[in-house]
Amino acid sequence: MSVHIHFLHRPHDVPSKLSEEQVHKSLRNSIFDGSAYSVMLGLTQNYITPFALAMKATTQQIGLLTGVPNFTMAAAQFVAPALSERIGSRKRFILPMVLMHALMWLPILLIPYLFQTHQVWWLIALMTLSTAFDSALNPAWGSMMADLVPTQMRGRYFGLRNRITAFISMAFSYAAGGILQLLTGNTNLAFTIIFIGAIGSRLVSFYFLSKMYEPLSPATEKRGHDSMLKMARGLFSTNIGTFIMLCALMNFTTTIAGPFFAPYMLRDLNLSYIVYTVLNSAAGLATVGSMTWWGKRIDRAGSIKVLKITSLFVPFVPLGWALNHSLWWLVIMQLFSGFAWAGFQLSSGVFIFDAALPQNRTRYIALYNSLIYLGVSVGALVGGVLAPLLPPFMGSHLLSVFIVSGVARLAVALFFLPRIKEVRKVPQIEASELLFSDFQRPWINQAFGYVTNHFRRHKTH
């Protein structure tokens, strides 16, 4: 695959002491790194819960499988900036973490062969350690990428990168589902093949990361940054703090339901692995199709405009699941979910780069990730506790959890969104114009060209 990046055209666009060629090479290698990482993600992300279910995991254990590793990930984020600063290089901190993350899949795949009892508890323990390695590198990686990618191009670059990685993740999610379907009678062998693929792809990711250049910037200096405690105190009084709280609580309310979509599909609806894979990949398909679309709008109108729109979309995903359980309706809801979450995740990821000062960026990314992982951890535990306590809706306790999650997401969005302001100078654009304007001929205008042209006679863009 050949990837060409045409974002940097003048020497003064290069945001560090690196040459323009080094920046281009690093951004290309970052796409290759992300692609290899996405192979691993596609093979594993949607299949850890089925792996646990094959070991007869309970609903509460499924909640713990999401909650405990994410709680550890939150703690790892606080330690990571200090370790990265002590080493003196973000890249030298990132690479050992990636290597350990790759190797952790080996004991995970050996669980069915090594342990006859307490298999789910061993899975929870090993996934906790694995995700700690994976999460610890995120602040340093985010800081390094923020220094490499010019501010005015972040939406488009990360939109392109995310689109490529989402497509690859979706493709390999299909592959993993196909392996499980073909080896239905021998799930241990199926998961062994899947996790060996995860090890290999993460090692490829390690290789491309090692080929990247690390910019020298204020973000790598030890002096001039604020303490994590000072940043935490500003969570309810500063613009960036309010933004972090929105994202943390949105992830908390989302994960109340998140871990239980897989048990609902596989256990309550009794879907096959291949149908389960199709539903999961439908969201991936929508993500692939909309990432660059959202990225262009972020560069045009700012991250917060897109964040506000998508924050009002995501509450309706679990509510939609509670309305109908026909296959076609669930496919539609997954497509909508992928579209909405693509915009939310891309806009929030770009905004934290924009809003944090360079000398504080690593620590703000760490605080941001910590609170998100904490929200995910607590949300999964809350969902596991609520599931058997809530009255069933349409015969399912899990549908009741979905409804609680959707209402809670909407409440969080309505409370925090009016309090967050854009930090870049961007034109004022109405949400309807941003979504439906003729911006490089999006599909909506191609489909309704006549109507669009009619309204253009009466409206100046």
Summarize the structure.
The chain is an all-alpha fold and 461 residues long. The protein is built from 22 helices and no strands.
Describe this structure in words.
- This protein is an all-alpha fold.
- The chain has a single domain (21-212, 228-430), classed as Growth Hormone, Chain: A.
- The protein has helices spanning 20-44, 48-54, 59-87, 90-103, 105-109, 111-114, 119-136, 138-148, 154-182, 187-210, 228-233, 239-255, 261-268, 273-301, 303-313, 316-323, 327-355, 361-389, 397-416, 431-436, 443-447, 449-456.
- Helix 4 crosses helix 8, helix 8 crosses helix 18 and helix 12 (239-255) runs antiparallel to helix 19 (397-416).
- The longest helix has 29 residues, at 59-87.
- The radius of gyration is 22 Å and the shape is globular.
- The two termini are 38 Å apart.
- The model is unreliable at 1-16, 218-223 and 438-461 (pLDDT under 50).
List descriptors:
461 residues; mainly alpha; Growth Hormone, Chain: A; 0% strand; globular; disordered N terminus
Counted up, domains total 1
Mean pLDDT: 83
C-alpha termini separation: 38 Å
Instruction: Indicate the overall shape.
Output: globular
Radius of gyration: 22 Å
What is the number of helical segments per DSSP (H or I, 4+ residues)?
Answer: 22
How helix-rich are the residues, as a percent range?
over 70%
Beta fraction of the residues? Answer: under 5%
Q: Using the coordinates shown, work out and report the CATH topology.
A: Growth Hormone, Chain: A
Order of helices and strands: HHHHHHHHHHHHHHHHHHHHHH
How many β-strand runs?
0
Level-2 CATH architecture: Up-down Bundle
Describe the sheet with the most strands: none
Which CATH class is shown?
Answer: Mainly Alpha
Looking at this structure, what is the CATH superfamily?
MFS general substrate transporter like domains
Helices and strands: which structural class? mainly alpha
Low-confidence stretches: 1-16, 218-223, 438-461
